[in-house]
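Hi there,

I know you've been waiting on this one. I reran it after we fixed the sequence typo, so this is the corrected version. Both the input and the resulting structure follow.
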Amino acid sequence: MKKSLLLILTIAYCMVGNAIMPAVSWVVSKDGLMNCKQVSVKNSKAKILLHDGKNITIPLAQINSYSQDGKMFKKLNLYRDGKPTNRMEFMQLLKSRDGYCLYKYNHYDAESPYDCYYIYKGDQLCYALDKSMKPKRIINLFQYFGFRAVVSSQPVQAS
């Protein structure tokens, strides 16, 4: 009798667990967390498809972070040559470890677009993994996060 009851409860628990779908995407804005079905980020606005089918548009200035297709993006201060640009840009979180986060930023240059890599602790820049840093140091920092770095004369690439 006890085994039968335990089996029924286990089956019911599994069915309830499968019925609850995790949020595919989410957006954190000034108003808080919003679970949604899809996020599409454009030049100055994000189009958000809610689970009930409604579409809403939010200016990017009001969004702090978002998740899209299993990738998390956070708005951080962009640095150039070790100096803050005072331009907030969305960067993709690749990995975090011991309070440090490795982010990738897609720099869209008309002639040659490339990816920039940064390590932040909170909102403070710790390292810009660029040509100003010794290649051995870049390789070690990528290894710290569990990535293998391929360093060449071109901008840093992670594999």
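Quick highlight: The radius of gyration is 21 Å.

Best,
R. S.
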